[in-house]
UniProtKB/TrEMBL annotation, chain A:
Keywords: Cytoplasm, Developmental protein, Differentiation, Growth factor, Neurogenesis. GO terms for molecular function: ciliary neurotrophic factor receptor binding; cytokine activity; growth factor activity. GO terms for biological process: astrocyte activation; ciliary neurotrophic factor-mediated signaling pathway; negative regulation of neuron apoptotic process; positive regulation of axon regeneration. Transmembrane segments: none annotated. InterPro entries: 4_helix_cytokine-like_core, Ciliary_neurotrophic_fac_CNTF. GO terms for cellular component: axon; cytoplasm; extracellular space. Coiled coil: none annotated. It is found in: Cytoplasm. This is Ciliary neurotrophic factor.
Length: 197, 311
């Protein structure tokens, strides 16, 4: 059983979690707006089913309620790092395809990218709070291997898949962070990350 | 059993009897008029629901039973109406269905639920019979659910399909135990409290937000207030002395749609107890009370002493 958390750490954690919940909520709203604009601008069908796109982290999870706090944070962090790279790729492709034709969409994409980066940093802070090493920082410099060159239509579909998953992840993150702030049934105090389901 | 559609023409042979044999036909034990016979065949034109029954044919002289059937007149099923909803997110969701019009004969319903490529079990509820529920195996999925309901009876078959996202069908039940009370010494306040719907399994991890609407009975226009946490609210702009009707609705804080409105509750803000007046004061009181009339929200206090609480 991990040593009980110090009150200051618990307080700091609660503060980080509630700010993270607000950040994720705002991010989700912006991603949903961006998704609508993206679908329209790219001439896609909003109800189109998009097969899982390689490299896009899936928000879907089984036995979500059994995950520990650390698992939640680590999975969130890995996902938002991947989204950071994917959104940067989308932004680049956006500029290549359209140049300055649709500044609005580009700006919205950049804004979401910023929020994703901020949220990833927020998650790292939470992990640091638990004196847990931040995973994969060494690979951070060179980032994930560049995705294969896709056709224009494939790029559009991948973009749709990225934004859809990101919208789901934002909701999942809100739920995950709420779990972290939940008092554990036994002590009533917020459990250390390792224990908190 | 012989099934026939409403409006069909039905011909029944008397078993192995020849066409020209002498026979007697009965329905539910009553002789059928010979006008319905074509030789020994029974001919029923444009059958209606009322012609369902047990039809028997007897050989003329020996009264031997030569043929008997039960005729059930009905209709093939129309496209069923299917609805799926999650009122206990994130545990699962239920689907319920009905036929837009009766068929008057037995129908069999079969439901299939597919999530991506995975077949999911829809566990039938004992009651009501036209409902089953599915447990979420995965949460936060972007893969859509596809539910197909097929209805079959002896006269035909039909089906309907619903495709939806996990979040789209989340709709809590209305809030419960809504209570509204006056606030002593506050003629313009009402205290409203309620509880999360008992069907909502984990309000802590999946908090609900609420929508409160209230109006005086004498007005049609509702006033609304949205509350993102907590299960109580104090109305501070109530019209003094007027009876109010109040309802609450709930929604998951992040996804889905609003619940239906809760049961309506009524309450009237606190009003000052009428003092024991001397006769002279009563007379002046009564004349001023009869001229007072209801006005828009008062910025200055209007004492409506003439009105009797609760009349």
């Amino acid at each position: 059983m991990a040593a009980a958390e110090s009150p200051s750490t618990a307080l700091r954690r609660r503060d980080l979690c509630s700010r993270g919940i607000r950040l994720a909520g705002k991010m989700r709203a912006d991603v949903v707006d961006l998704l609508d604009a993206y679908v329209e601008q790219q001439g896609l069908d909003a109800s189109a089913s998009v097969a899982a796109v390689e490299g896009v982290p899936l928000a879907a999870v089984e036995r979500w309620d059994e995950q520990t706090g650390t698992q939640r944070l680590l999975e969130n962090l890995a996902a938002y790092r991947a989204f950071r790279a994917l959104l940067a790729q989308m932004l680049e492709e956006q500029r290549e395809q359209l140049g300055e034709a649709d500044v609005g969409l580009g700006r919205a994409l950049a804004a979401v990218l910023l929020q994703v980066s901020a949220f990833a940093y927020h998650l790292e802070e939470l992990l640091r709070l638990e004196s847990r090493g931040i995973p994969g920082e060494e690979e951070e410099e060179d980032g994930p291997p560049p995705p294969p060159r896709l056709s224009l239509f494939e790029q559009k579909l991948r973009g749709l898949g990225v934004l859809r998953e990101l919208a789901q992840w934002a909701v999942r993150s809100v739920r995950d962070l709420r779990q972290l702030t939940k008092p554990s049934p036994a002590t009533g105090a917020a459990p250390g990350l390792a224990e908190s389901p | 059993i012989q099934y026939e559609r409403v409006g069909a023409d039905v011909t029944m042979k008397c078993g192995s009897m020849d066409w020209d044999a002498a026979v007697t036909w009965t329905v539910n034990g009553t002789d059928i008029d010979e006008s319905h016979l074509n030789g020994s065949y029974l001919v029923l034109k444009n059958v209606g629901l009322s012609q369902s029954g047990q039809y028997s044919c007897y050989e003329g002289s020996s009264w031997h039973l030569k043929y008997q059937t039960y005729l059930r007149v009905g209709t093939p099923p129309k496209e069923p109406v299917l609805m799926c909803r999650s009122n206990n997110y994130p545990k699962g969701f239920y689907c319920s269905w009905h036929l837009p019009t009766p068929t008057y004969i037995n129908n069999t319903f079969n439901i299939s639920v597919i999530h991506g490529t995975k077949d999911m079990v829809c566990e039938r509820d004992a009651i009501p019979k036209n409902r089953c529920h599915i447990r979420y195996l995965q949460l936060f999925s972007t893969v859509k659910y596809k539910v197909t309901l097929t209805v079959t009876n002896a006269l035909g078959k039909n089906f309907t399909t619903l495709t939806f996202d996990e979040f789209a069908i989340v709709k809590p039940d209305p809030p419960e135990s809504v209570v509204a009370k006056p606030v002593p010494n506050n003629p313009r306040r009402l205290e409203v409290s309620w509880q999360n719907p008992s069907s909502w399994p984990d309000p802590e991890s999946f908090p609900l937000k609420f929508f409160l609407r209230y109006r005086p009975l004498i007005l049609d226009q509702w006033q609304h207030v949205e509350l993102s946490d907590g299960t109580s609210h104090t109305i501070t702009d109530a019209y003094a002395g007027k009876e109010y009707i109040i309802q609450v609705a709930a929604k998951d804080s992040d996804i889905g749609t609003w619940s239906d409105w809760s049961v309506a509750v009524h309450a009237t803000p606190w009003t000052e107890e009428p003092k024991h007046l001397t006769t002279e004061a009563q007379i002046t009181e009564t004349t001023s009370a009869s001229t007072s009339s209801f006005m828009a929200p008062p910025t200055t206090k209007i004492c409506d002493k003439g009105a009797v609480v609760g009349s």
